[in-house]
Amino acid sequence: MRCLWIIAIGALTLNISAPVNAEPVYNKPVYNPTSKSYFELYSPDADDPKKRPVSISGGIEWIHAARIAHKKSFRGTRGRLAIVNTQQIHEFLRDTFDPAGAVWIGLRYWCRYNKLQWVNGKFHPFDGFHKWGRHWNQNAAQPLQGPKPPYCPRSHKKATLGVHYWGTNHGFFWNANGTYKQFNALFIEYPTGKK
User: Fold this and answer.
1) Quick one: which of 26, 42, 56, 190 is 20 to 30 A from 12 by CA?
2) Of 118, 136, 130, which Cα lies nearest the Cα of 191?
3) Domains of the chain, start order
4) CB 30: neighbour CB atoms within 10 A?
5) Residue 2, Cβ neighbours under 10 Å: how many?
6) For 128-168, what is each residue's pLDDT tens digit?
7) pTM of this structure
8) Residue 183: other Cβ atoms inside 10 A
9) Closest CA relative to residue 82, chosen from 71, 100, 70, 96
10) In Å, what is the CA distance from 64 to each residue of 58, 70, 149, 183, 184?
């Protein structure tokens, strides 16, 4: 007991803090003052420990995640899948919510046009902010650099690939491979423009 007391006093003296979250924070909007938006790590299964949002199958496809986000509102503002276009927002999502499993965001890749587009309609430049994991293009050994397209089967040239984060257990990087991926969590943004 005395040892724990000494460690606690030492941590306070050195200003060492424990990790912000021991477990992911689901279904609770949190304000980001830099973007003036609330963000929420949403999962319909968050309250059921047997269905925690870590599975790859049996979840929600990107298009359905976009619809779910659009139907939700917070403080009078309609939701959308999160737009993560800065390092600050990326770090805020990682540090605030600490999602263990994969999570949809509001970006998708258009196979036919070799373009990335956010849910607000804006196109994302390939040389803009990104957090691609090294396996976005499953056929490439190196990370994406420039407008090199990911793998899109010929039969899926009209398809889009939804972008998701691999959870913090897997490095918290973006990925967009496979047209029929399903995950049980999504980042929703409520762009209120105020607190």
Assistant:
1) 26
2) 118
3) 22-190 (3.10.100.10)
4) 14
5) 6
6) 898 988 666 544 444 444 445 566 766 666 678 899 999 88
7) 0.79
8) 27
9) 70
10) 13, 10, 24, 10, 11
